[in-house]
Amino acid sequence: MRVVLAEDSVLLREGLVWMLGSAGMEVVAAVGDAEALLRACDEHTPDLVVTDVRMPPGHSDEGLRAALALRRRRAGLPIVVLSQYVEERYATQLLSTETSGIGYLLKDRVADVAEFLDALRRVAAGGTALDPEVVAQLLVRRHSDPLDRLTPREHEVLALIAEGRSNTGIADALVVSEGAVGKHINNIFAKLELSGADKDHRRVLAVLRFLKI
Amino acid sequence: MTVAEVRSPWDRVRGHWSARSWLRMFHVVTGVPLGLLAGLLIVAITALSVIFVWTVAVPVAGALLLFWLVPLLTRLQRLRFAAFLDVEIPPVPRRRLKGNVAMRLLRRTRSASLWRQVAYHLASPLISVVGCAGVIVTWSGALVTGALAVQFWVLGGGWRGVPFALLSAALLVAGPWLAQGVSSLDVIAGEALLGPSVSDQLAERVESLRESRAEVIDAADAERRRIERDLHDGAQQRLVSLAMKLGMARATFGELPLPAKEMIAQAHDEAKQALKELRDLVRGLHPAVLTDEGLDAALSGLAARAALPVRLRVDVPRRVSPTIEAVAFFVVSEALVNVAKHARATTAEVVVAREGDLLRVVVHDDGRGGADPGGGTGLRGLAQRVGSVDGTLKLDSPPGGPTTISVEMPCV
């Protein structure tokens, strides 16, 4: 898997290169600002982009804007955005086009190496990886609609779907059987009145409903 | 006016007729034409305006002429004080008058400083003429008596010339004193009537204090942002890097002895905890999203992270200054923390709206009420922070609830 990495802190960038390399990913370019990120993506056509939100020259949301620009240029390009703070607003901007192949994680998550690499792989495969903290924010905020009909357990399951977990991942996280997860998910679909034929499509719709995007 | 240090009797004598004394005399003398001119013009314009008051046009033109003339005469007088006496009379601060021409005219007639200047220009001919006459009489008296004394002495009048000589000497000594007295009187009148009044000075002081306070507040806000950025670019990145390396060590340790494994695992957990604590601390300083995206985005994050459901409405079409944004964010942040801690509320509502030059922030909760600004430092801190930008904070919290905090802050 070919990865382009953008992170302005040299220390962290080198660490990430090393970590991704030892996990069997090929970091084709590691850059320090948004301009260089755009150039590197044109040059290398990576399978995955990992970028910091705040980068030179403005140390504002350059990385995020670069990510949005990259998505516009190449639809479906898997991008993981790392942020010091997860902000619902940034998440909403990222997810406003589509939720597949998008990751938005707190920078601290790199400390949990296995989980972080798992999230990267999920996004590269076209999945979603939303930081639990963003999901928690959204969960607190979205409370006055059909979602109210969900039981607390179904809420948990929906939150994990929104984080981008598979049924197996959800079953592991909640320590229940995969069959139980499937039952919860079907209940969620019913309560959110999602009766589409394609299962994955419904999954995305449920997340979209959940995120109110 | 500085008084030169007097060292010897000779210095004293010399000082009495020094250049300074002559300048004082010139000051008194030049005051006569200028004072007479000013007095005459003012009296003439006033008289014409009174005589032709029925035409309306003449008094209005007279008033306009007076408004133009008086500051000009004042400027001339100020130059005279500066040139001969080295006395700098500070100019009267010109206030920017609002309204249409008629309103401005009326306001100008109400201006106290204008009438004080008129008073000086009317008093000045009196002081100058009397003073100048006195000085001239003294000097010419000294000359005449001196001449008489010399005449008696030359003609062999003997002792009869002595009183004249004494009188001449006395007048010679009195001349500079008189000039000094008259010019001092003029300085007192000039400083009192031509300079800024006490209320002018106070107004100016208030203005400069307001400016310096705004600078201090902006500086504090900028400092907060700088600290946030420094921590973000420095300590936080290092900690993330450290936590990541410990995480990798933890993931890949194979044959390490058990104590070492435990040590690494503990270090990893501590690094992550430190990271979280640092993040919470830095966030409270000045969230980056506030700078990037404004109040709406920053408050959304705040409302989302609150411990209870928060309904948020932000209606700020044009962004306000960073300082006001920071205060508004702080108000909502602190208020929501207070609600979560003390109010036992089930929901809260935050409304932020810009109404012209006013930013209104209202935080309402359905809790048990009874909040007391004197009770804790939280509400007092809020009021202080709001007060620092000339805002007002109102608290309505009857026992039993609900509680509403309304803040209004001026913004441009």
Automatic annotation (TrEMBL), chain A:
<dbReference type="InterPro" id="IPR058245">
    <property type="entry name" value="NreC/VraR/RcsB-like_REC"/>
</dbReference>
<feature type="modified residue" description="4-aspartylphosphate">
    <location>
        <position position="52"/>
    </location>
</feature>
<dbReference type="InterPro" id="IPR039420">
    <property type="entry name" value="WalR-like"/>
</dbReference>
<keyword id="KW-0804">Transcription</keyword>
<feature type="domain" description="HTH luxR-type">
    <location>
        <begin position="143"/>
        <end position="213"/>
    </location>
</feature>
<dbReference type="Pfam" id="PF00072">
    <property type="entry name" value="Response_reg"/>
</dbReference>
<dbReference type="GO" id="GO:0006355">
    <property type="term" value="P:regulation of DNA-templated transcription"/>
</dbReference>
<protein>
    <submittedName>
        <fullName>DNA-binding NarL/FixJ family response regulator</fullName>
    </submittedName>
</protein>
<keyword id="KW-0238">DNA-binding</keyword>
<dbReference type="Pfam" id="PF00196">
    <property type="entry name" value="GerE"/>
</dbReference>
<dbReference type="InterPro" id="IPR000792">
    <property type="entry name" value="Tscrpt_reg_LuxR_C"/>
</dbReference>
<keyword id="KW-0597">Phosphoprotein</keyword>
<keyword id="KW-0805">Transcription regulation</keyword>
<dbReference type="InterPro" id="IPR011006">
    <property type="entry name" value="CheY-like_superfamily"/>
</dbReference>
<dbReference type="GO" id="GO:0003677">
    <property type="term" value="F:DNA binding"/>
</dbReference>
<feature type="domain" description="Response regulatory">
    <location>
        <begin position="2"/>
        <end position="122"/>
    </location>
</feature>
<dbReference type="GO" id="GO:0000160">
    <property type="term" value="P:phosphorelay signal transduction system"/>
</dbReference>
<dbReference type="InterPro" id="IPR016032">
    <property type="entry name" value="Sig_transdc_resp-reg_C-effctor"/>
</dbReference>
<dbReference type="InterPro" id="IPR001789">
    <property type="entry name" value="Sig_transdc_resp-reg_receiver"/>
</dbReference>
UniProtKB/TrEMBL annotation, chain B:
<keyword id="KW-0597">Phosphoprotein</keyword>
<dbReference type="InterPro" id="IPR011712">
    <property type="entry name" value="Sig_transdc_His_kin_sub3_dim/P"/>
</dbReference>
<protein>
    <recommendedName>
        <fullName>histidine kinase</fullName>
        <ecNumber>2.7.13.3</ecNumber>
    </recommendedName>
</protein>
<keyword id="KW-0067">ATP-binding</keyword>
<feature type="transmembrane region" description="Helical">
    <location>
        <begin position="118"/>
        <end position="142"/>
    </location>
</feature>
<feature type="domain" description="Histidine kinase/HSP90-like ATPase">
    <location>
        <begin position="331"/>
        <end position="410"/>
    </location>
</feature>
<dbReference type="GO" id="GO:0016020">
    <property type="term" value="C:membrane"/>
</dbReference>
<dbReference type="Pfam" id="PF07730">
    <property type="entry name" value="HisKA_3"/>
</dbReference>
<dbReference type="GO" id="GO:0046983">
    <property type="term" value="F:protein dimerization activity"/>
</dbReference>
<feature type="domain" description="Signal transduction histidine kinase subgroup 3 dimerisation and phosphoacceptor">
    <location>
        <begin position="223"/>
        <end position="290"/>
    </location>
</feature>
<keyword id="KW-0472">Membrane</keyword>
<dbReference type="Pfam" id="PF13796">
    <property type="entry name" value="Sensor"/>
</dbReference>
<dbReference type="InterPro" id="IPR036890">
    <property type="entry name" value="HATPase_C_sf"/>
</dbReference>
<keyword id="KW-0547">Nucleotide-binding</keyword>
<keyword id="KW-0808">Transferase</keyword>
<feature type="domain" description="Putative sensor">
    <location>
        <begin position="27"/>
        <end position="194"/>
    </location>
</feature>
<keyword id="KW-0902">Two-component regulatory system</keyword>
<feature type="transmembrane region" description="Helical">
    <location>
        <begin position="51"/>
        <end position="70"/>
    </location>
</feature>
<dbReference type="InterPro" id="IPR050482">
    <property type="entry name" value="Sensor_HK_TwoCompSys"/>
</dbReference>
<dbReference type="GO" id="GO:0000155">
    <property type="term" value="F:phosphorelay sensor kinase activity"/>
</dbReference>
<dbReference type="Pfam" id="PF02518">
    <property type="entry name" value="HATPase_c"/>
</dbReference>
<keyword id="KW-0812">Transmembrane</keyword>
